[in-house]
Amino acid sequence: MQNQKLEHLYIKSNAFLVGNIEVDNAIIAGSFDGSLTVNEVLYLESSAVIKGKILYNSISNDGAKIIGIIKPIN
Fold it and tell me: Is the pTM of this model over 0.90?
């Protein structure tokens, strides 16, 4: 997937997404690999596996596995 700008992103627990994405809000229960910028709120469920670079404004993490760089936008 090429660079995409979305309003909302939801990755189900059995789904896998690779890409470079900018989104307003995201809920991740599955797997993501790439670069993700979340301009508002990022919700990570306990089943989420995140690899890559994640930038966020606000985050809620319910025990997700994060491999890579995660930091606030500001």
Answer: no
